[in-house]
Amino acid sequence: MNYESTVESEPQAVETEGVTARPRRLAIIGAIAAVVLIGALYYFMHGSGEDADALASEQAGQIPRVTVVTPGNTTVEGKIEATGTLAPRREIPVGSVGEGGRVVSVPVDEGDWVRKGQVLVVIDRSVQVQQIEGARAQVGVAQADLNLAQANLDRALKLVDRGFISKADVDRLTSTRDAARARVQVARATLGELQARTARLNIYAPESGLVLTRAVEPGQSVTGGGTPLFTIAKGGEMELKAMLGEEDLAKVNVGAMATVTPVSSSKSFQGQVWQIAPTIDQQSRQGEARIALAYAPELRPGGFASATLNSGTVSAPLLPESAILNDAKGSYVYVIGKEDRVVRRPVKTGLVTAEGIAVTEGLSGTEQVVLRAGGFLNPGDKVKPAKAK
């Protein structure tokens, strides 16, 4: 009896336990669902603005959210980088312009400063000195003949009124006097020629400047019109022959300022563009801009240097490279039009700086320009613009 009673009571206990657990499980699941629902509502209402906007966009029909910027107008100063070779701005070759001769002395050397008219080379002139003395003596002889002819004419003129001298004799004496005067002039001209030719034997500096090269030594024989014996940089002025591409060359004007830094020095020098090549090299597709520089020991002709040129300033909207797109029709940007729809706007770009690219045509600066991801848009697309932070 006891055994049967025990066996019958166990199913009743199990059944009671199952009935009690089921409502408890349902209650727990309901509580979890309520918590999740409350959290979702809270997140939707109080979550980050970016996620909320994304969710709203999704609910509104997948309207993309784009970042826009209003560029305004900025004064942009263009910079162009270039390299080139240093050279004298005005290089003057100096040689012998006289008859030449044996070099007696060379009082200047490479690297010396000379003034205009300073003697660079002294040529032996012993023969020319003797020729000058002979010519001077001839002048004296001719002058004596002139004095005698003038005295004879004066005496004849006093006697002509008395009838002792005929008019024909006076004419003859006058002609003799005139011939003697002409011989004096010839002798003086010959003397002046010899003096001038002798003065040209020495070699003089035609301009003040810096001696770059010297190719003459004492004892050497030189001839007129031969190989230049010196080269002089007029005024010591140098220049950088900067090579620029076609586009950059078109942006540079005469008078533009430039900063030049030689490779052999960390020091920079200020210069000014004084000449722009009128042609472009067909092989390299580059042109030359010549930058004038004042004398400085660090500026050595033949050296290599870099330059930063000022290509001018312009007041224009400034946009990052990501905002400007290009296709077969040219450069363009996307701006936000009516009802937040994308509008394609053709533009023309100008100066390129580290801060961005200047837009010279197509924008006033007050538009909302799509900052990035414009390649994924099409004209007429509706978007949700957001200002760039």
TrEMBL record:
<feature type="domain" description="CzcB-like barrel-sandwich hybrid">
    <location>
        <begin position="100"/>
        <end position="233"/>
    </location>
</feature>
<comment type="similarity">
    <text>Belongs to the membrane fusion protein (MFP) (TC 8.A.1) family.</text>
</comment>
<feature type="transmembrane region" description="Helical">
    <location>
        <begin position="26"/>
        <end position="45"/>
    </location>
</feature>
<keyword id="KW-1133">Transmembrane helix</keyword>
<dbReference type="Pfam" id="PF25973">
    <property type="entry name" value="BSH_CzcB"/>
</dbReference>
<keyword id="KW-0812">Transmembrane</keyword>
<dbReference type="InterPro" id="IPR058792">
    <property type="entry name" value="Beta-barrel_RND_2"/>
</dbReference>
<dbReference type="Pfam" id="PF25954">
    <property type="entry name" value="Beta-barrel_RND_2"/>
</dbReference>
<dbReference type="InterPro" id="IPR058637">
    <property type="entry name" value="YknX-like_C"/>
</dbReference>
<feature type="domain" description="CusB-like beta-barrel">
    <location>
        <begin position="241"/>
        <end position="311"/>
    </location>
</feature>
<dbReference type="GO" id="GO:1990281">
    <property type="term" value="C:efflux pump complex"/>
</dbReference>
<dbReference type="GO" id="GO:0015562">
    <property type="term" value="F:efflux transmembrane transporter activity"/>
</dbReference>
<protein>
    <submittedName>
        <fullName>Efflux RND transporter periplasmic adaptor subunit</fullName>
    </submittedName>
</protein>
<dbReference type="Pfam" id="PF25989">
    <property type="entry name" value="YknX_C"/>
</dbReference>
<dbReference type="InterPro" id="IPR058647">
    <property type="entry name" value="BSH_CzcB-like"/>
</dbReference>
<keyword id="KW-0472">Membrane</keyword>
<dbReference type="InterPro" id="IPR006143">
    <property type="entry name" value="RND_pump_MFP"/>
</dbReference>
<feature type="domain" description="YknX-like C-terminal permuted SH3-like">
    <location>
        <begin position="319"/>
        <end position="384"/>
    </location>
</feature>
